[in-house]
Task: structure prediction
Amino acid sequence: MSAMSPSERRLQKELMSLIKDPPPGVTVDAEQAEQNLLQWTIFMEGASGTLYEGERFQLQFKFSNKYPFDSPEVTFVGSNIPVHPHIYSNGHICLSILTDDWSPALSVQSVCLSIVSMLSSCKEKQRPHDNAFYVKTCSKNPKKTKWWYHDDSV
Amino acid sequence: MSANVMDDELGLLFKYPLMTITRENRNVVLVQGKMFVNTKDIYLKIAQIFFQGQYRYELIKMQNVSPVLAVQEVHAVLKKNPPSILIMLDQIYDVVRTRAIVERQLLPADGRSDIYQDVLHEISEFLQFYTLVKVQIDQKSNLLHIEHADVRGQEHSVAIAFFYSTEKYNEILFKISSCDLPIKESTKSHSTSLIELFDKLLADIEQLEPYIQLMNSIDASATVVDPIPVTKRLPYRRIYISDTISVLVVINPLDVYERPEIKFLGPPGQVEKHNSLLNENLAKWSCSKNILESILNLIGYEHFPAIDTPTIQEDIIKETRTCSICLTEKCPSQDVLPDITCDKENCVAWYHKFCLYSYLEASGARRVFEELVDLCPNCSNPISCPVIEIY
Result:
């Protein structure tokens, strides 16, 4: 195999640990990720006892070659986008660690955990109040959005 | 055009191996070095200068040529603008040789440019006789590095020095200067024929075959304390027995079936115990059996003890010392363990200097004297990293 770049090496390492020891309810499409380390699909199950119990979601992670210095681009994809005050109907997620608060010490695993806990702490299923406007005007890449973070409680 | 250049380069290498051609700038090419004429090295330095689509040659320096007349002769050659550097050197060579300007005299045995031609000739003949793994000529120290694979596919390396004889004119001598096997003293004496010398060496290697095998099996099964790194050139092994005791086994390379010399090293009390056991076993020495087994019987072990490594402890260190940025202990670009943490005591993150610096630099961290200062990627407490050169 040809020499891997530092970002690919790190992604390979993360992929291995995610396959071996995934957080509860999270599975990674290992085959696809192995073929292209820069784009992963991750399946997430709504935790039992929460509003999303029994639901299955699909997350897409896109990495640049600057990863982990640069945050991954994370969106919900597929037919079932969770209805949540911080998740737009086009799959974009309003989560500070995905942009401003990203740090190279974070990982795919910690992002998954954050999203799981964000879903789990939700008290009422509803779209963000600016959903219709945002979905019409936003860029395809959620990282280009200047997020105006909502409260931290949800 | 390109074919000409190639011919020129090859011709130069063969005829004037110590002449070098360097391009100084767009307009100037320097030709300099030694030329062997009439048993003597002369030194030349000539510039080829391009000017307005034309080139001309200029003599910068010429040494070891007398009388001064020669300089004028050479100038005359250069005035005629020879069509190539090789032809120019050929013409200078002719002038210097035919006019007998160089004083005919015997030179000191070294420093002659034609030694490489003679050696190359000898080597090309030599190569027709053997298939070798690798041959390399070291011009600086006049050494020939050879790697040879024996019948079992074991590779051995040998360095052969070549030099002119001080007694007989124009005779090259070859001598083994180093070898990774304990070869005989007689093989180490110099020889006029590389082939002859190598034949002797091969005979030695063949005779050493049982020794090579024994050493391989010892090195594979025992924890060798000395020599490190293990080399078959040295016919002894000091082998780990316990943290305080080791055993020195000296083998006769030419007769491995001879009982090896065995000596226990360590605190007197323990050595005494091992020695008495050894004395009992000495009588049982038999050369018919597997040698390695016989040696083990002699020192009273079924197999060589392995060093107890505190594996669990090592794991703890490894786990805590993974760089939080590249997630490895040693990243390929830097062969060091992570060595930077932030000021906060209970933060578990460690970083490689290289990884942290790359991140802080990319994120536009503040530079304070020779350090970049920012927040720890893990706990957001202050962290600093020395400025390093990244290439």
User: Anything to note?
Assistant: Chain B touches chain A at residues 324-328, 331-333, 349, 355, 358-359, 362-363, 376-378, 380 (CB under 8 Å). Chain B has four domains: 5-102, 115-207, 218-299, 322-386. The domain at 218-299 of chain B is CATH 3.10.110.20 (Ubiquitin Conjugating Enzyme). The longest strand of chain B covers residues 40-51.
